[in-house]
Design goal:
It is built from 13 helices and twelve strands. By secondary structure, it is of the alpha/beta class.
């Protein structure tokens, strides 16, 4: 697991947001570049810079400062906040940003994300703010997107996102624990690294994040910031916990294992085929939703392409069902 240190920049200063609101911003110092370099010296694997002016106000006054920060920091710098166009994303990458983070834009303009992932492979990160019911919130938690975690992860994974930042919308990281269920669900859905970006209350929370496992996979990283500047722990302490890895559970007393009968080879084949059918239908449904969105936007060529994709997935699902039916008929006759 990698440790990302967050640097929030507002009006050229490093700030902390006690309740997630710019109105309550607390200035930490006037030199975000020194803060970022200090985070690296304390052991941060990467710097996660958030341009709050660009994100909340569409004001890009901090971009020159961020360009200088990228150049000054010895290590990877990931930039988030107000990246709403192909031009701006490309400009930051050309300036040396290790990766750029797409939030609301990834939900509202998926075509742009597809194009960026094609033009800048391994550079585009998608950030998702997830409500307890797994609906994706946008525009600083103020809007409900009508889109849900699984479908968005699958679409953005197909687009080529290099990793996913997952945060819980509305959660106060200094009071409430991380939602391990949502993070485990994200690990189950996509193969790309999943990074917990909502923060933790203390080192015990961090230890629990390290221990999350789904299908043999663990979280790829965690973003910390406010909890460090609030004095809950230091980056050095957090890095030590991460480097130590998951706590090993005490060995259970040896008992004779109970062997449950597994499916026969024929049953296993059918199970796999039905899973293939489900996967094809899920992909078709995703393309159908996208086609409907393109029609609403008046983007006829795009909706046609997604419509043809739906048909292709349906045809493949029908072919698999025909194969299952033929195998079933053969068994009945024999």
């Amino acid at each position: 697991m990698d440790l990302y240190a967050r640097v929030n920049i507002l009006e050229g200063k490093s700030v902390r947001l006690p309740r997630g609101s710019l109105d309550n911003a607390i200035t930490l110092d006037n030199d975000p570049i020194s803060r970022a370099r200090n985070w690296r010296e304390q052991g941060a694997d990467a710097i996660h810079v958030v341009d709050l002016d660009a994100a909340a106000r569409g004001d890009y006054r901090n971009r020159d400062l961020i360009d200088r920060l990228i150049a000054a920091v010895d290590g990877p710098v990931q930039v988030a906040g107000g990246i709403r166009s192909h031009v701006e994303a490309a400009r930051l990458i050309d300036a040396g940003a290790w990766r750029v983070v797409m939030g609301t834009a990834a939900i509202e303009d998926q075509n742009m994300v597809w194009d960026l992932c094609r033009d800048h492979p391994d550079k585009i990160v998608v950030s998702l703010d997830v409500r307890p019911n797994e609906e994706i919130a946008t525009r600083g938690w103020t809007k409900n997107s009508g889109r849900f975690l699984e479908e968005v992860l699958l679409e953005m994974s197909s687009a080529g996102a290099v990793s996913f930042l997952i945060a819980e919308a509305g959660r106060d990281a200094l009071i409430e624990p991380p939602d391990k269920k949502i993070l485990a669900e994200a690990l189950r859905i996509v193969d790309e690294p999943v990074i917990a970006s909502g923060g933790v209350r203390h080192l015990e929370d961090l230890q629990e994040l390290i221990s999350i496992e789904e299908g043999g996979r663990r979280l790829g990283g965690v973003v910390v910031g406010r909890e460090v500047t609030h004095g809950r722990f230091t980056l050095t302490e957090a890095k030590a916990v991460i480097d130590a890895g998951p706590i090993q559970k005490a060995a259970e007393p040896a008992t004779k294992p109970v062997v449950e009968p597994g499916p026969s080879p024929a049953q296993a084949s059918q199970i796999e085929r039905y899973r293939q059918v489900a996967a094809e239908l899920e992909k078709g449904a995703s393309h159908a939703r996208t086609a409907a969105k393109r029609i609403k936007e008046g983007n006829q060529p795009r909706d046609a392409a997604h419509g043809f994709a739906v048909l292709g997935h349906l045809v493949r699902a029908e072919e698999i069902l025909d194969e299952i039916a033929a195998e079933h008929a053969d068994r009945v006759e024999s």
